[in-house]
Amino acid sequence: MPRFLLILAWPLIEIGLFVVIGGWIGLWPTLAWVVGTAFAGIVILRIEAQRGAGLLRKGLMGAALAPDAPVAGLMRGLAAVLLILPGFLTDALGLLLLLPPVQALVKGAVTARINIIGARAYAQTQGRRGNGGGETGGETVDGEWVEVPPGHPDGPDRPAGRNRPSRWTEIE
Fold first, then answer.
1. Domain of 52?
2. Three-state DSSP class for 134?
């Protein structure tokens, strides 16, 4: 219920801030602030997208990433989105997320939650496998295979327009 009330109150708070701050500083400075923070948010979002692509490339090449790099990038991306949205409250929250002390607080809370979820998921998968490693436990699955010679009607080089019915229709 509190989340629902927060979602309902958010636009009302933003409208109230627009009226109060807009009346205090005037129309044109208010519009300049909204456009300027949206532009700054777009620039930050583009920088974060490029940084994320670089980290992805490094990760695919086997380079080790800092453990908090995804969380920091996510916070800067969220800050950019908050800056893009029109409103003084969203701008204030976006600017707060760009501050290193606030990032450190949020990182601590987020990484603690991620570690708990990760440990729980790891324990569940290990318990399901029944062993400590990533092996299948030595289980053997029996199966049959048939080699189809080239030119055979069921082979991979059959004519493109030929669509043979399923063998399920051949059950007696």
1. 17-129
2. coil
In a domain, 9, yes or no: no
* Torsion sign across C-alpha atoms 80, 83, 84, 89: positive
Q: Is 141 a member of any domain? A: no
Is 164 among the domain residues? no
Cα 32 from Cα 168, distance rounded (Å): 69
Write out the two tokens for 121: 């998921």
Residue 56 counted as domain residue: yes
Residues 38, 87 contacting (CB under 8 angstroms): no
Give tens-digit pLDDT for 75-127: 899 999 999 999 999 999 999 999 989 988 888 877 777 655 555 555 566 55
Stated pTM of the model: 0.60
Which residue shows structure tokens 């801030």?
A: 17
pLDDT at 149: 73
